[in-house]
Design goal:
Length: 203
């Protein structure tokens, strides 16, 4: 059974097999991570087409008699200030991933950290009184590499406040964490309560 360091202590904690014994599914993890990142895009980029730019629709000069090539409206894409051809318009980037596939991808991402010994368990009671200094010392004692992801429950305010000001440390409520967050971190710290929540959600 995989074990994890108990943050701030020299002991090891058993990691639940149902969460940290999943083989690595590269295509599945990639699909879920891409869906997570796409869902965060606002999709508000917008450009003006040739029909939307504020240009006159009159011809630049008359058709014949100038010795120049014939020309139409000045709002065409190949002219300065003209409309954009095939430019972005507001859209949604969300991609559907089946629930079972997403859960499997999350277990796979967590298992990678278990294999690398880059996951630690946190007793949130040790941080009921917020202390950034104590949090930094605990991470230094463990030897965590940046970037670090901390998963806690919404009730563990003290732990959130203790770790959120540390550089390159992301603090997330366990229900808001995605596959991209887990697989993108070099080290993951999970509170005991958040670990139970993950077991219920992914088990």
């Amino acid at each position: 059974m995989a074990k994890a360091t108990v943050l701030g202590k020299s002991t090891k904690a058993d990691l639940p097999k149902e969460l940290f014994a999943e083989p690595f599914h590269q295509s599945l993890v990639h699909e879920a991570a891409r869906a997570d990142l796409n869902a965060r895009r606002r999709g508000t980029a917008s450009t003006l087409t040739r029909g939307e730019v504020a240009f006159t629709t009159a011809k630049a000069w008359r058709q014949k008699g100038t010795g120049r090539a014939r020309v139409g409206t000045l709002g065409v894409p190949n002219r300065f200030g003209g409309g954009v051809a095939f430019g972005p318009k507001p859209r949604k980037y969300t991609v559907k991933v089946n629930r079972k596939a997403r859960r499997k991808a999350m277990r796979s991402a967590l298992s990678v950290h278990a294999e690398r010994d880059s996951v630690a368990v946190l007793d949130a009671k040790d941080f009921e009184t917020p202390s950034t200094k104590s949090a930094a010392q605990a991470l230094a004692k463990w030897g965590a590499r940046n970037p670090i992801l901390l998963l806690v429950t919404a009730e563990e305010i003290g732990a959130m406040k203790s770790f959120r000001n540390l550089p390159r440390t992301q603090v997330l409520e366990v229900g808001a964490a995605g596959v991209a967050d887990v697989i993108g971190a070099a080290a993951v710290v999970i509170s005991e309560t958040a670990l139970e929540t993950l077991k219920e959600r992914l088990g």
